Amino acid sequence: MDLGISGRWAVVCAASKGLGKGCASALAQEGVNLVVNARGVEALEETAAYLRSLNPMIEVRCVAGDISHENIRQAVVSACPHVDILINNAGGPPPGDFRDWTRDDWLSAVETNMLTPIELIKTTVDGMAARGFGRIVNITSSAVKAPIDILGLSNGARSGLTGFVAGLARQARLTERNVTINNLLPGSFDTDRLQKTLQRSAQVAGIEVSDIAQQRLQTIPARRFGTAEEFGAVCAFLCSQHASYMTGQNVLLDGGQYQGTF
């Protein structure tokens, strides 16, 4: 299927590895030009070289730095001739017990996983509407639908973003101008983030990480962890011309792990 987005420009945050890299890779293969961001310069440059190898016809620009900082956000947007596609993504806050978290821990989580995506949306969405095309995908978490006890910081901050998007995505001045905003909710994907969560759970339970991993797999009907490549493919579809009638949705990608009907 031709997704109809070749030649578009996309900003992909936290793109040097994991799910962000998976999304950038899928867009690159569809002919989308990219501005990629991550904090580590070396890893980001390596990813950019990989993306160019996937499709030598596209342009890939790198802006390294913490996307939660205003000057980095400005640099990222300025590096993009026009933002047609925005993939909001950031590493989640650390797991733990809420009794141990300070006010600063909460503010940091909200800044990174709620306010930063909102600021990027604010900066780009009106330009998308003016041009008659825009796709925004926020990578959040399956914990928005089924909270995970040790991920309280993530549960709270990402749920705040979800509530905000639910209202904004349905504004007629955006929907009538072919601008969609959706959230993509990953379940258990084989990333560094998952490994850290498994390690924390194993520490709390006093058992081996491999045992915790097997326990987690038994809760997933697919009996495996997801891959960044398949996550990126779904993201690319949400960014396509074929998804223009889909907005304000929370798309759960978890191998069937969530047990609810709605």
Automatic annotation (TrEMBL):
It comes from the Bacteria. Coiled coil: none annotated. Belongs to the short-chain dehydrogenases/reductases (SDR) family. PANTHER family: 3-OXOACYL-(ACYL-CARRIER-PROTEIN) REDUCTASE, NADPH-DEPENDENT REDUCTASE BACG. This is Oxidoreductase. The lineage of its organism: Bacteria, Pseudomonadati, Pseudomonadota, Gammaproteobacteria, Pseudomonadales.
